[in-house]
Structure formats: structure tokens, C-alpha cells
Amino acid sequence: MVKQSSPTDSQRKFTGFLMKRDTLLSMLHDMLLARAFEERAAQEYTRGNIAGFLHLYPGEEAVAVGVLHGAEPNDYIVSTYREHVHALVRGVPAEKVMAELFGKRDGCSGGMGGSMHLFDQERRFMGGYGIVGETYPIAIGIGYSIAMQELPEAVICFFGDGAVNQGTFHESLNMAALWKLPVLFVCENNRYQIGTEIHRHSAMTEVYKRACGYRIPSEKVNGMDVLAVHQATRSALQRIREGTGPQFLEVETYRFRGHSMSDPGSYRPNVEVQAFKDEDPVTVVLEESIPDFPTESQLEALGRDNIVHLTGHMRQQGYLEMEDVTRMKGEISKLVDKAVDFALNSPEPDMHDAWRALYCNRGQEVLI
């Protein structure tokens, strides 16, 4: 038997360098797609192609991307009414999401869910929910089924800071802790419950501390830093898979737009909005993804035995340059255009579709 030697420190640094770059590129793509998709959705709303409520995500991309890149394909996702980006990052095709926003038959919910009720069984995206605080009991119900079957899966439950004052929050956290359910609670704290700032509607503004009352390990994370969110999620999910029970993340973020398309957001000081735009998570990832060419001293620090590997990779793959970003944005723009065309050309659902949905699997519901 050949004994494999342990990697050297320089090899670890080299591997970590490549992994970080690949992870950043993947995250950057999803964040750029999220921003472009949401801004186009806003345009289509003003054109009358999207009706009803439309809650957009610009500014919060690092949360969805960081969390969902840390999840496994078999994990379940339960989202809120601001869930377009959650669905996209989870892998729901952009044209399916856009068609659902348009209320068309080819949408991921058959055109009968709309903006707040996206669903994808194949990807275990268990839906967005329009009722504030509705995600908790859905998530722990799935978590209970996983625990009863002793499966290695987890549930990621998204909710906003405004939902932590609902009774279902306390009931669900208590039950999840009591039964050690495999649920990761993720609070997307964007500081405003519709138009009310958190310190005006919550006596305890540090949301993560609420979980301590149920002995659930909790952590506050910078939601404008996608890598910080990703690392915190990976660590939390690992603890869940080890059987320690539920985990809780409060991810501090900020939405650049109002609560919905009908909300101008004038209750927020302009200086506050601009301060957070200066910390735009998409811009941060762009800057991290375009590093300077390594100096000789930096190559020396990696170890001379790795220089050939590193320079070979650089020649073969190249660093991400601004022209690469421009090309990526162009590809994403075409993808969003294609999604809009798909939605425009998709047929409207009819009464036969409605009846099929009403009687689908009635009385024989099972965990997907």
C-alpha cells in the first residue's frame, strides 16, 4: 500500500486560493444574475406585464447566494414573499421564474402562484409564502419528517426581521429545539418591517439573541459579505448534520428599494440608503474577483514547488479581467431577455389548469 503524504502548508494555500477564486466566480455569476433579473422584473411591472405585489431583492444578494451555495441539493428551502432570487440561486430556470411572475402556464407554479408563491418540487424549493411568519411551521414540519426518517438532510427557513414578532416564531423555535429538528433558521434582517425600522417594532433589536431563550446556537453575520454568509452557513449546516439540532443565523442586510414596487421608500433617509449602496455586495465581489497579478514575493510565500502549478493555471485559465465581467454581464442580459420572451409567449392558465391544481394529490400528500 502506498502511503499518501499530507499536503504541505504551501499546497494548502494554493488549493485554498483556487477554491476561493472558483467559489467567487460562481457566486459572482449568481449575484449579477439576481440583480439583472430583479431590475428587469421592475421594468416589466411598470409595463403592466406583472400584476399584484412585487417584492424585489437588490442589495440582499449576498444572503441568498451565500446561504444557498452552502446548502446541499437534497436540503429543503422554505422562503418568504421576497423569494425570486432564492429560487434562481437554487437552480430554478430564469424563464420559469419570470413566467410565474407574468402569471403564465409555463411558470414554476403553473402561473397560479405569482411573485410570492414560487415552487419547484425537483429542486426541493418548497415555496415562497405571503403570510408573515408562515415559513416557520412549514419548515419544522419538513424537519420533523426528516428526523423521523433519520435522513441526512436539513431545512433552510428564511424569514425577515418583521416576522420575529409573530407567535409562530416562538412556537416553532421551541418545538425545533425540543425535538432537535434539522432546521437552519435564517433571518434576513434588512432593518425595516415594510416601513417601520426595527428599533420601533422590536424591544430586542439583536434578533439572534432571541434564539438563546430556546437554547438554539445563534450567530450574527454581515449580510453584505457573501463569503462571511457562506462560511457561517456551511458551519451551521455541518453542526445540524452532526445531530446537534437547529441553528440560527441573523444576517444583517439592506434592501435598496422600497418594501414592494408600490412603496417609494421615502421613510428612509437618503444618506442611509447611499451608505449601504456604497457597500453593495455585488461590487464587493467584483473587486475580490479581479485580483492583481501576484508579485514574486507572493509566489515565494506559496512555495517554489507551487509556482509552476500556479503560473500554469494562470496561463491556462487566466484571472478574471474587466472584459470577462463585461462578457458575463452580457451573457446574463441575454439570459434575462430570453426569460422575458419566454414569459411573454407562454399561454395563460385556464380553468382546466385550476381544477387540476385543486385536486392534485388530494388526501395523499407525502413529503417530496
Protein architecture, described:
With 368 residues, the chain is α/β, with parallel strands linked by helices. The chain has one domain: Thiamin diphosphate (ThDP)-binding fold, Pyr/PP domains (Rossmann fold, 3-Layer(aba) Sandwich). 48% of the residues lie in helices and 10% in strands. It is built from 14 helices and eight strands. The chain has helices spanning 9-46, 61-68, 84-90, 94-101, 135-149, 167-178, 198-201, 226-241, 270-277, 281-289, 296-302, 304-317, 322-345, 351-358; strands at residues 76-79, 125-128, 155-160, 183-189, 192-193, 196-197, 218-222, 247-252. The strands form two sheets. The chain has a six-stranded parallel sheet, with helices on both faces. A two-stranded antiparallel sheet has the order 5-6. Helix 1 crosses helix 3 (84-90). The protein is globular, with a radius of gyration of 22 Å. The N and C termini lie far apart (44 Å). The relative contact order is 0.16. Residues 1-8, 10-18, 292-296 and 302-318 have low confidence and may be disordered.
Give me some keywords for this one.
two-stranded antiparallel sheet; six-stranded parallel β-sheet; 14 helices; Rossmann fold; 368 residues; alpha/beta; 48% helix
